[in-house]
Amino acid sequence: MSTIQWYPGHMAKAKKQVQEKLHLVDIVLEIVDARLPLSSRNPILDQIIQQKPRLMILNKADLADAALNAAWIAYFKQHDLPAISIDSQHNHNVQQIEKQAQVILADKIARQHEKGIKNKPIRAICIGIPNVGKSTILNRLVKRNVAITGNHPGVTKKQQWLKAGKSLELLDTPGILWPKFEDPLVGKKLALTGAIKDSLYHADDAALYALAFFKQYFPERLQKRYHLTEQDLTLTDSDLLLKLTTNFGLRADYERASERIILDCRKGKLGRYTLDQVSEVVTHD
Ligand code: G4P
């Protein structure tokens, strides 16, 4: 997991770096975690990207709820943001990135053809908060392992273009933005999925949030994974955490029990899930 600690100075630098890189590209690949299509975005990107074409990429789709992947893609499309879901770890759908970039830039490419400019590569950059899979996607697209040096706000290095398909070139250093810390609920979601450093949150907060979420949406998964009874599921979240701590044989070590629950959620041991509910945003809209 990323080791970046975000201070106001880092944020300003990261913003400036992303701004500078935007001038170099035809399209931005905005990478989010499919389990958190909204909470893993950084709204600052909307401000700085302006009219630059963009493709939303819901990565880690293998860990997210399949129906909600489709619902989120539809939601973004309704908001004029073309979106796709991919699983870059297992190389599923990654080739769609180049195809979609061609579709989004079709008018520009047609204008270039009219002027006799042919085979000009589409230049792109991956941008997103830490741990959403920017480096994995980059490596998949360029079909080799690129050592991503300088992948840190404030560290500058010479930019290089990497061939990432017949018509696509990628900037070798992804743009990194900071996660949103202000809303405690967003913080818990980011913690649970591993998007923020373990030292930045209390494990029991994230674990209690996980228990509440699974009790509400997938109680049967909790029951199965942790051998719970129907009665156990009626306990309050804190009492359930106490019960699990005992069941794990950890006496009163809630911290370790919480860490175990968090790890299970991160590794998909409780099945696929999406923490951001599209229905809530649609109602809000
Ligand atoms: P970043 O550059 O945006 O910071 O993310 P990076 O590619 O390093 O990926 C972060 C973690 O997410 C890695 O796990 C990576 O294997 C995993 N990952 C990336 N894409 C996918 C995907 O589509 N599906 C799944 N299931 N996992 C994906 P890691 O090396 O184990 O790191 P960590 O979890 O220990 O931080």
Automatic annotation (TrEMBL):
Keywords, in A-Z order: Cytoplasm, GTP-binding, Nucleotide-binding
Listed Gene3D superfamilies: 1.10.1580.10, P-loop containing nucleotide triphosphate hydrolases (3.40.50.300)
SUPFAM superfamilies reported in the protein's UniProt record: P-loop containing nucleoside triphosphate hydrolases
Keyword Amino-acid biosynthesis on entry: no
Compartment(s): Cytoplasm
PROSITE patterns reported for this sequence: G_CP
Pfam families referenced in this protein's UniProt entry, alphabetically: MMR_HSR1
Domain CP-type G: 15-179
Function: Required for a late step of 50S ribosomal subunit assembly. Has GTPase activity.
The protein, known as: Ribosome biogenesis GTPase A
